Amino acid sequence: MAGKAPVGVLALQGDVREHLAVLTALGADARPVRRPEELAAVEGLVLPGGESSAIDKLARAFGLFHPIRAAIADGMPMYGTCAGLILLADRIDGAIAGQQTFGGLDARVARNVFGSQTASFETDLDVPALGDPPVHAIFIRAPAVVEWGPDAEPLASLPDGRVVAIEQGALLGTAFHPESTGETRFHQRFLAHVHARSGVDAPAS
Ligand code: GLN
């Protein structure tokens, strides 16, 4: 059997452990990434939920901002949840002063879009690309995709039409947190992108 392609979880802030646990349970060689050398050793990267402006600042402080941009430009598969989706977007609404994103996903993502009344909620989402059953999605001060370009494909929407899961090539983003509900299909999809690109066998699940 071929070796496993190592994958990373950006470990500057946010729900890093939950992502590492899901990836490890799926048989992946998953590691935290805090330094450029650690990024250089992985073949895919998860950007966790947390606070996108804090992750942006820390990525710059840790010398990871430009290496992550370069990895995206080079086609490294990435999966962003919530704050991670914001970090993948080329354009954001509701940024704090000076907030930047890694970009790569041709989309506009609005931060904290559900307002204080519904800052956190749960719902079942149909995700045709994943099939049955529906995804039980937890939204926590979540963003939503409000505009996207021709190469980006919405994977799930709320009944009001706001897009909450999207994919463009090897970039995958969800506004909600599958890592907190035992939902593994988005992480499997991310790992499939990694294995397709690296030519390494997918781990048995
Ligand atoms: N509101 C956060 C942000 O704008 C995202 C929340 C989350 O990741 N759960 O970064």
Question: Can you lay out the helices and strands and say which pair or pack?
Answer:
Blueprint: E1 7-10, H1 16-25, E2 30-33, H2 36-40, E3 45-47, H3 52-61, H4 65-73, E4 78-81, H5 83-88, E5 89-93, E6 105-110, E7 120-125, E8 135-140, E9 144-148, E10 153-157, E11 163-168, E12 171-174, H6 185-198
Parallel strand pairs: 1-2, 1-3, 3-4, 4-12, 5-6
Antiparallel strand pairs: 6-9, 7-8, 10-11, 11-12
The chain binds glutamine.
Residues 49-52, 82-83, 86, 111-112, 140-141 line the site of glutamine (GLN).
GO molecular function, one term: pyridoxal 5'-phosphate synthase (glutamine hydrolysing) activity
GO cellular component, one term: glutaminase complex
EC number: 4.3.3.6, 3.5.1.2
